[in-house]
Amino acid sequence: MAHGGAVVPVIVLLTLCTASALSSGGVAAGGNVGGRTEIWNVKENKEVQELGRYAVRERNRRAGGDELVFLCVVRAQSQVVSGFKYFLRIATTASGGQAVRRRSRCFDAVVLVKPWLGSRELLHFLPATSSLSRRR
């Protein structure tokens, strides 16, 4: 039994890893592996606001007609996939016309970000529903 001395350090290491995962808010602490996480302080979050601007610009480029003007992201959730999927509720207004006559409208957008590739992709951009879209 030449490897018998390695069993104790392995058990100690596994115990420490498990304790670390539990104390850092993993599944046992209420997290949801692969599930969505609410992003708080959305209006102060520059990255989330920039993703909202990107979503509106990309939607305008694809639509090629009536342009929307980005106002702000009002709600956001993230999900770890092969990258990060952001579920955004975006307040917009129509471009053109007098500012008084423009009404704001909300849209639900999904943006996939792969930081290691430096890429982001608009997956969905639809009129808002009563709750943030559950589309995956």
Automatic annotation (TrEMBL):
Residues 1-21 form the signal peptide. GO terms for molecular function: cysteine-type endopeptidase inhibitor activity. Residues 31-128 form the Cystatin domain. Keywords: Protease inhibitor, Signal, Thiol protease inhibitor. It holds the Pfam family SQAPI. PANTHER family: CYSTEINE PROTEINASE INHIBITOR 2 (PTHR47373). Belongs to the cystatin family. Phytocystatin subfamily. This is Cystatin domain-containing protein. It comes from Spirodela intermedia.
